Amino acid sequence: MKIISLINKPEIKGLMAEWFHEKWGIPLEAYLESMDECLDGKITVPQWYVAVEGG
Q: Which residue stretches of the chain are H helix?
C-alpha cells in the first residue's frame, strides 16, 4: 500500500472527496471545501492523505 498526500496529487481530490463522503455520509461539499483550503495553503491541519493499494 502507498500513502499519497493530496498536495502531491491534487487531481485525485474529487475521487477522494467522493470516497470519504460515501464512507462517512458527511456532505461532499464539506470535504471539497476542506481539501481546497489544504491545497490553497490556507490551513495546515487537516492535511489529506489516501492509502492506495498497488499504487
A: 13-24, 28-39
Over the stretch 27-36, which tens digit does the pLDDT of each residue have? 999 999 999 9
C-alpha cell at 29: 461539499
- The C-alpha torsion from 46 through 24 and 33 to 16, rounded to 10°, is 80
Q: Is 54 left (phi over 0), alpha (psi -120 to 50) or beta?
A: left
Burial class (CB within 10 angstroms; exposed 0-12, middle 13-18, buried 19+) of 10: middle
pTM metric for this prediction: 0.82
